[in-house]
Structures are given as structure tokens and as C-alpha cells.
Amino acid sequence: MWAITRVISRRIHGTSDITVPKLAGFSIVSPKHVEVEYSDGTKFNFSSEFLRIHSPAADGKVRSIGGERVISGRRYVGIMSAEPVGNYGVRLVFDDLHRTGIYPWDYFYELGSNKFGLMRSYIKTLQKHNLSREPPPSRKR
């Protein structure tokens, strides 16, 4: 059974303790979109790019530039599958073969509550390092 109501303290961009309602639904709407709904009626829609760049995995194919975690070139990444992990979350498998991130239900709530600020911050970081959301051009052999 899903955890009832929990208090979490992950502190993403100033987020303090949040009471997370019980999960009501999770679905991959298309390879590019995920929908997560909670018992209080809150519903979040996420692009696969957004979830990929905010992967909770330690590796996540990250470039470290000046100590900043930067993932670029993931605008068109898709989700191939979602694998339940116990009662607390899901492992998303992306078509760039990233599969090590386990997304707890609490984390989806945090991401959804801060979605626009997180995306704005991501775009600013890319611009700061002269990177792009677009994938790099394919190499010609």
C-alpha cells in the first residue's frame, strides 16, 4: 500500500518541509510525458526531458562544470518504460539508456511544486555554460 501522508525535507531551491498526499495515479501518457496525481487532487504533468535532467541518480550522465551539475542535449529524450520499486517509487528507463534513477513519489511532488523555477534555472545554467537543450549533431563516419 502507498504511504499515507509523509513529511519530507529535500530542500529543492528553498523548498522546506512539504506534506505529501497519498499517490492516486501514475501514468506514462506518451514516451514524452508522465502524469502523476495525488489524493488531494493535485496533478502534475512532466516532460521526459524535465524528469531526465532532474534524475535522482548519482551518475545521470552529468557534466560537472565549475562544480555545477549540468545535463545538456536531452530535449527529445523519451521514456521507454517505468518499473515499480517497492511501494515508494518508480525507476524510469529513458531512451538514452539512462536507467539508474529511482524516483520516489515524494520527489515527483517536489518537482511538480517547483517545476517552473527548476526549468528556468536549468535553462539559465545551460546558457551560462554555452550549452543547449538540443542534442549534439550526430557524427558522420
From TrEMBL:
<dbReference type="GO" id="GO:0046872">
    <property type="term" value="F:metal ion binding"/>
</dbReference>
<keyword id="KW-0408">Iron</keyword>
<dbReference type="InterPro" id="IPR010376">
    <property type="entry name" value="GBBH-like_N"/>
</dbReference>
<protein>
    <recommendedName>
        <fullName>Gamma-butyrobetaine hydroxylase-like N-terminal domain-containing protein</fullName>
    </recommendedName>
</protein>
<dbReference type="InterPro" id="IPR038492">
    <property type="entry name" value="GBBH-like_N_sf"/>
</dbReference>
<dbReference type="Pfam" id="PF06155">
    <property type="entry name" value="GBBH-like_N"/>
</dbReference>
<feature type="domain" description="Gamma-butyrobetaine hydroxylase-like N-terminal">
    <location>
        <begin position="32"/>
        <end position="109"/>
    </location>
</feature>
<keyword id="KW-0479">Metal-binding</keyword>
